[in-house]
Fold each of these.
Amino acid sequence: VENPTQNLESFFLNVVENAITKDEETSGSTSGHAVAEFLRSDAPVQSQAEKMLDRLADKEASKPKPKIQKETPQVEQPKVDEEKLESLSESNEPGPPKEKVPESKSTERQQNIDKADDKLSGLLGED
């Protein structure tokens, strides 16, 4: 058992030849004729080396030229008075008193959470 193989071009040409011999319509496909004019190029075909040189030349031409930067004079930064900063950052006045949650509310909240946990455990079937 052999599996003959053929390339796509030879397969196409065989199909066209068979269609011509049977006088079937080939939708304009023919064999043995010249390449269509719109597919032909009148310009000479560039070699791979010429294409590479053209691309390199285009890259060099498209590179932006380095801009000459003008020297800007450095502006002196004002000195920071560390002592003044420390005196301002320290607070001699007592801040507002922190609010403390009364223990009765926190224990009441905890009890509510415990009750909710118990209900959920009962729904899940855990005892």
Note: The two ends are 75 Å apart (CA to CA).
Amino acid sequence: MIEPLGLIKNFARVRTRIFVTIAFFSSVINILMLAPSIYMLQVYDRALSSGNTTTLFMLTLLVLFMFAVMALLDYARGIVIIRLGNQFDNALSPALYTAACESNLVKHSPNAGQAISDLTVIRQFVTGPALFAVFDSIWFPVYLGVIFLFNTWLGVFSLSGACLLLALAFINEKTTRQLLNEAGGYALISNHQANSSLQSAETLHALGMTDNVKARWWRGHQQFLYCQSAASERAVLMSAVTKTVRMALQSLMLGLGCWLAILGDISPGMMIAGSILLGRALSPVEQLISMAKGYRSARLAWERVVRLTGDFPPAQESIRLPAAQGVLTVENVTVFPPGNPRQPILQNITLRVNPGEVLGIVGSQCIGEILSRQSVVRCLACRRGGCQAGWGRYLPVAEAEAGSWNRLLATGRYAFHGNPR
């Protein structure tokens, strides 16, 4: 069985050095993030108090150099993350594509490409801002510790503000999770209905069923809009509250610092630097909060990927055999229609065709005949019995090998990308 979690663990283990490099870049970047606060502290406490322009000039050159180094490291980290995302996609996409093909053979889903879209969602989340936020959040205690070094009250206020923002994020998650999950389910159903009906637009038009099918799709779409709108309204409310609290914390931090400076507990430079450090300390917290929606989408996509790869494990290793010659034998074959495992269409079918013979299968509705052909060429799995074509008994033949002797074309019109020549 394909284990996505195992593939990801193996992916991370092989690329440990890359993650160490990203962690190193993030550490240096976060250390350099202290430069504005230190610059502000030195300007107020040294350059401004002494009136020495040379000190101000050298401090400015030093902080500009730090900004340049930080920009280069941030760029390098972004490039590494992009390439890591491509490698992540290359490691998982072939297995998912195979599982999606197997799923479509069995279920005939109108949205068989959902697995590839889910992988894109997971890749964008895992190798996007989420990874930056995880590495940056490790430095939250460092920024908080520096604020505590300035003054205990400033540190307590900063810690309380971070806890308040996390509490608001938790409330937002609890109030919107159920609605967003329902909206996601309705969206998938609505998209499936739209895709299947659009693929049969000619038939619907000929039978005069377009309006009825559209009304059925519209009802599901309205349910999706209702859940999505209700969740968005709650999220907008919590976003407004969070933004207001964030701005209030920044201003109150400055006011608390001013009060402590008046009492003589800290210097004016510490007052400004503490306010800047609070903003930097809360930045990873805000990033993690803003990723809540992306996390929900990635989690749902991950659950679908795990379910798909669990239901459709990879086939056994195929055997390369010579060209098919000899007797075609079908023994006690029982086949169920796609998506209906209860009522068989073919049951206990047995036949034998010798070389050079032609066998015609006749029926009233063409359903059993089509399934018979699909079972012979292994487009459909037999619940009982099996088919063989001159080889060993029910050997797992490679798809490319089977294509050299199979001449079955599915009933329907399909188009493949390419140019006619």
Note: Strands lie at 328-335, 346-353, 384-389.
Amino acid sequence: MAARERILQTAGQLFAIHGYADTSLSQVAREAGVSKALILWYFETKERLFQTALQHFLAPYAIDENMLRGLNARQQLEKLITDYSDFIAENVGSVKFMLGQVAREEENAKDMVAYVSELYRVYRSLLATILERGRQTGHFTSLVKPTEDAALIMATLNGVLVQQIVEPDNAETLRGLLTRARQVIHAHLSGSPDTRLPPPPLEPSAADPASLQR
């Protein structure tokens, strides 16, 4: 890895963990195995290093709706889920960096946080549009609630994202979670009885006196 790339990767990790104020150029230099002078030669100031790191980690974040052309609603949903999971697997460092900035509410990163928030909104809106289209075409049950279900799908995928961050080396568990998430999501959207409605409450049993006393 070239020195400049190594500096950006290291800086991103340290900014994500310690925040802007508590990350020094000396620390970045030490962790990256370069001199502080080399960092200043590339980036001139700590602020410029931070902003460059932001742009570096924002680069993978994009949504191309053209990739969904020619697919029905069910196929579009599956592609979005697959692309999301692939993105997380390939960009764990970037995701950690972004989450670190959002959690710390860094003053320097407001534009980046706004960009990621807008991207999240666009993705959720796209999901809702697909769900509505699928409901109209019969690919999904008429009981689908596009806005609420889109938010629920996002929450599920974000849970998998957190799992990937917590256990980055457990690829088998991640694949299992994604497979199960797909099954549950598609079952819910197709109106399967076991996922569409909550189970009915248990009736007190005459054979269970304790239940009659509750």
Note: Residues 110-137 form the longest helix (28 residues).
